[in-house]
Amino acid sequence: MTGDTLPLTTLSILLLMAARQPGWATSFDCAKAETADEKAVCADRQLNDEDVEISVLYSQLKPLLGMGARGDMEDEQIAWLKRRAACGVDRACLSKAYEDRLRQLRSGFEALARRGPF
Question: What contacts 24+ positions apart, CB below 8 Å, involve 73-79?
Answer without folding.
Answer: 73/108, 76/104
